[in-house]
Amino acid sequence: MLKPIQITKNRYRFRPTLVGVVITLICIPLFIKLGLWQYNKAQQKLQVQTAYNHAEVDEAIAFPLQELDGKNIEDWKFKRVSVTGVYETQYQFLLDNQVEGKQVGFNVITPLRVEHTAQYVLVNRGWILGNDTHSDLPTFATPEGLQTIIGQIWVPSKKIFTLESKSNAVNGQQGWPMVWQNMDIAGYRERVPFPVSDMVIKLDHRSNAGGFVRNWQVSADRITTHIGYAYQWFGFAFSALLIFMYMSFEKIRPADDSIHDAK
Predict the structure, then answer these.
(1) CB-hemisphere CA count at 13 Å for 147?
(2) N or C: which terminus of the chain carries fewer CB neighbours within 10 A?
(3) Cα separation of 137 and 147, whole Å?
């Protein structure tokens, strides 16, 4: 049978309960883990913002056609690139649930056929406002002819959770799903008759190649919010320790002294 821990010193006794020990051992690591999670999210967004700021002043490099097989793709994240080609409007789509200035709309995603090749890359042309009725899709123009695209590389996550099915996702003409809930490169490849890069280009906000609202910067408020949440979780961990210590210490009463001396 386990005996309770008991330490007596200077008229105070440390005697934690088993329940208190168990709860504290669960809560403190959990709160620290959640704090580190929020802190890491803030650092990731800060890295994205730093990379974006560097890309603003860096010289645009040629889009890496040799990397379309996915090798070393992480090395190209956030780099500023340039590529010339023609927009393929038949296979463009709207990325749903995009927020700009507290308004909900879509990002316009258009494939670009790279000049003198059979390769394609998706271009995020920016944000447009949705209509009052969600099923009533907004109209937008796409420039024709050769376009020189300058923008920043974005590598969409392959971890996608969606409740939509391919059979009921069709809401465009000729069976093409015009609205997508996620940037699903693998799903897009299954639907189109041409090879597509794993990378997406976010069109530079200074470009005239058919762009819309392009506030690609990470909001400083989001970084501050994550830092605030991190400190909050760390504070919970520290508070849990203080509560445990406070509830585990008790002052020895005179009657307890007499019993202790008699022993």
Answers:
(1) 23
(2) N
(3) 25
Side chain identity at residue 147, one-letter code: Q
The domain limits of the chain are: 63-216
Whether the CB-CB separation of 105 and 98 falls below 8 Å is answered with: yes
pLDDT, tens digit only, all 263 positions of the chain: 445 565 666 677 777 888 888 999 999 999 999 999 999 999 988 887 787 777 777 788 888 766 544 457 777 888 889 999 999 999 999 999 999 988 999 999 999 999 999 999 999 999 999 988 877 899 999 999 999 999 999 888 776 554 454 444 434 445 789 999 999 999 999 999 999 998 999 999 888 999 999 988 766 778 889 999 999 999 999 999 999 888 887 777 765 554 455 44
Phi-psi group of 23: left, alpha or beta (phi > 0 → left; psi -120 to 50 → alpha; rest → beta)? alpha
Alpha-carbon span 187 to 207, nearest angstrom: 28
